[in-house]
Design goal:
By secondary structure, the chain is an alpha/beta fold. It folds into three domains: 96 residues, Alpha-Beta Plaits (2-Layer Sandwich); 74 residues, Histidine-containing Protein, Chain: A; 66 residues, 2-Layer Sandwich (Alpha-Beta Plaits), CATH 3.30.70. Helix content is 44%, strand content 24%. The strands form three sheets. Strands 1, 2, 3 and 4 form a four-stranded mixed sheet that branches. Helix 3 runs antiparallel to helix 7. The N and C termini lie far apart (73 Å).
């Protein structure tokens, strides 16, 4: 009778260890999710001034607190949703009431344009002054080249709510001429920085949502080591091409696999 009793005691001990290990593992995983979220490019760059609390329980993440801009709500949610181990996100973030511009107002449109430009690496989001008056957007500041100035106009013109664009940006004299291959290559090497995949996915999704030509496109976005894969259905070939173009110019994106179907 001693062997069965020893075997029973051993099995009981093992079972106890399993029950203890599972909660500890879950707790460690949740701590890792909360820590990883705060270290993402999006949280450190775009959400650093927001009051966001992150709480994970068994992979289900709850976001609470306030943000300064409405776009930060979805940006935070999309970033966290892309982290390893996250099973779902309950986004309870709210925009600060005193900073909330009326929808489709000039202030609302200015914020939308500035946010969109910040996501793209081949335009100057921080160096572009944006003014708006009933759908007419005026751009001022300095562009590094004629190509950058034209690209800024193109991007802004395709943002929801923009009716016309007046681009009054100046082009710095040293690079007013068309850049050669060496200049372009050098610029590309310096601007593509290492950004986490969760942030890239969130930035691509938000950018596609803000642009008029891609806002209604049902696009699935996945990122692996900076390589973005787009899947979904586009109504036109032009819409598919624009989705790939916008995604390819997001900070941190190395290349884009555009697998979208045109129907």
């Amino acid at each position: 009778m001693k062997k069965p009793m020893y075997r029973l005691a051993f099995m009981t001990a093992v079972a106890s260890m399993v029950f203890i290990t599972v909660p500890l593992f879950a707790s460690s995983m949740d701590d890792g999710i909360e820590s990883s979220a705060k270290k993402t490019h999006v949280f450190k760059t775009y959400l650093k001034d927001d009051n966001i609390k992150i709480k994970s329980k068994d992979g289900l993440v709850t976001l609470t607190g306030t943000v300064q801009e409405a776009s930060h709500i979805s940006l935070a949610g999309e970033t966290v949703a892309g982290l390893p181990g996250v099973k779902g996100v309950d986004n309870k973030l709210e925009e600060k009431g005193e900073n909330r511009p009326a929808e489709k107002s000039d202030a609302w449109l200015i914020t939308k344009v500035k946010t969109t430009l910040l996501f793209h690496r081949n335009v100057s989001g921080t160096g572009t002054e944006v003014l708006a008056d009933q759908g007419t957007v005026t751009l001022r500041g300095e562009a590094s080249s004629i190509a950058q100035k034209d690209l800024t106009t193109e991007y802004v013109m395709d943002i929801e709510g923009v009716e016309t664009v007046k681009n009054e940006m100046t082009v710095s004299g040293a690079v007013a001429a068309k850049p050669d291959g060496k200049t372009t290559a050098k610029k590309t090497d310096t601007v593509i920085e290492a950004i986490d995949d969760a942030s890239i996915t969130a930035l691509v999704k938000t950018s596609l949502l803000y642009h008029r030509s891609t806002s209604a496109v049902n696009t699935k976005v996945e990122t692996k080591d900076g390589v973005v894969t787009l899947e979904g259905i586009a109504k036109t070939a032009a819409g598919k091409d624009l989705a790939g173009k916008y995604a390819g110019d997001i900070n941190g994106v190395k290349s884009v696999n555009n697998n979208m179907i045109v129907e």
